[in-house]
Amino acid sequence: MVIKMLELFKSIKLDKNSGAPLYMQLFNVISSMIDKGTLLPRTKLPSIRQMASLLDVNTVTVVNCYRQLELKGYVYAKKSSGTYVSTVLPPVDKKEYTNKYDYVDKNVILDEIYPGEDISILTSKIRFDKKTINFASATPSSNLFPVEDFKLVLNEVLDRDMGNAFNYQDSQGYRPLRFSISNLLKEHSVNCSEDDIIIVSGAQQGIDIISKTLLKDGDHVITESPTYRGAVAVFNSRRAVVTDVELEEDGLNLNLLEYHLKKHRPKLIYTIPAFQNPTGVSYSKSKRKQLVMLAEKYDTYIIEDDYVSELDFENKNFKPVAYYDKSGRVIYIKSFSKIFMPGLRFGFMVVPPHLKKHILGAKHATDISTSGLIQRALDLYIRKGFWHKHFYSMYETYKNRYTKVVNSLEKYKTDNISYKKPGGGLNIWLKLPYNCVVNSLLERAASNNIVFTPGRIFFSSTSSNLNNIRLSFAAVEDDKIEAGIEKLCKLI
Ligand SMILES: Cc1ncc(COP(=O)(O)O)c(C=O)c1O
Asked: Is 301 helix (H, G, I), strand (E, B) or coil?
């Protein structure tokens, strides 16, 4: 009987190349055996080691599978005895498990679209499947996520810290993590100690918390034009009056900026100085310095949104605006979503000392504390050297894609399509011929399995700039880039 049972398990086939985690594949097979009655209640499953050796997989795979089975009520564990099939079975909800790993939300792929925006033009025409050439998404595809390494540190934290990992944390952030980050920041010319850092659940939350701290109804905010709409959505939600100022090839038009500073006395200037989203523009050193001087002169603050400065493929080595700030005018916000795992919801801010108490108050009111488990795991991830390993691999992947996109554009674009090489980041901003209607292009591209983001999304509604598009290469497969650009140039 036992031998028959072992044969049964030995016949399980797991597909190491399918992309679906092995432990979930095993979970699906065993749960279906239980559903069908092939495994009867109270049957003892092979021990973890035995099962791992039968299937030639890691013991961690079996541990995770048994954990899932237990979690879903299929099995129960008896101390010092083993794992047994439950006597009461859970209701079968196949939908919950099948295709879970293929499922991608259209609205998530188009990650610059916000609730309430009319995206019917995009969603009605676009099918996302294996053939889609995705120049729309500026966030990495999930096959680039370092899941295995992160699983290791998560498990280590759980064993090490037990319940403490699930308690409320210091609202400012887990101190060892702040210390690890202050060390990382030295490589980016941001000099700060762990006391200046506040951990947040993503840069978006950082922008929201700063706005909550500094803005009240009717206050003015200056942004670049075009800009990241997620920030504008925050300023609007604070009922601020948003004025956008033209972005030039080396940063904001400073004459216009000074004019608005004098006229409106804004509370905040929101800027993305490195490889700006959507244009890819980086500020010159001189404009970085002048921006800080103007903020001092007109008694305002700067949010420096650093979402990808480290993706510097041509060694421009710009120092952050915060580097030039000697009088506490710059709030530096860092997102990790573009090089790490955006769904972790992790970012941090470096704040001027005189604002810290107020910002912490706003953070506490918003969130009490950021997830302790994630902070502890991330700290260990950095200390074990996984962070650097992962970063270099992402850097190489993105640089390779960047080079492919630029080379393909050089090969296929016609003279009436123009762009400036950003030298880094994740986006290329194309200016199309004046008579090219972007909405029609979008539809025609979609029917050729190509998606991109129309430029109008990044401008205020009054803007007349309608013939730009943003090509992002964070999620497009390398081998589809050249064909995608060739086709797109033809369609244009
Ligand atoms: C410029 C910019 N800032 C901030 C964010 C939000 O980042 P996070 O995921 O860290 O909240 C994004 C996301 O796309 C972005 O493009």
From this structure: strand
Pocket flag, ligand 1, residue 228 (CB < 6 Å): yes
Reported as a single tens digit per residue, the pLDDT across 84-130 is: 998 776 655 555 544 444 445 555 556 666 555 555 555 555 666 77
Mean per-residue pLDDT of the chain:
90
Cβ(184)–Cβ(192) below 8 Å: no
- Ligand 1 neighbourhood includes 348 CB (under 6 angstroms): no
Q: How close is the Cα of 306 to the center of ligand 1, in Å?
A: 9
Confirm if 15 and 25 have CB atoms less than 8 A apart.
yes
CATH (one of 3.90.1150.10, 3.40.50.970, 3.40.30.10, 2.60.40.1120) for 106-145+389-491: 3.90.1150.10
Q: Indicate the top mutation candidate among 198, 335, 336, 426 to test ligand 1's pocket, ranked by most ligand atoms within 8 A of CB.
A: 335
pLDDT of residue 102: 46
Per residue in 363-373, pLDDT (tens digit) is 999 999 999 99
CA distance to 282, 330, 336, 361, per residue, from 333 (Å)? 16, 9, 10, 17
Query: Is 335 touching ligand 1 by the criterion CB < 6 Å?
Result: yes
427 within ligand 1 shell (Cβ under 6 A): no
Please identify, in words, the CATH class of the domain defined by 2-97: mainly alpha
Residue nearest to atom 7 of ligand 1 (CA): 203
Strand ranges, E, within 283-396: 301-306, 330-335, 347-350
Ligand 1 mutation target, pool 110, 204, 272, 427, most atoms within 8 A of CB: 204
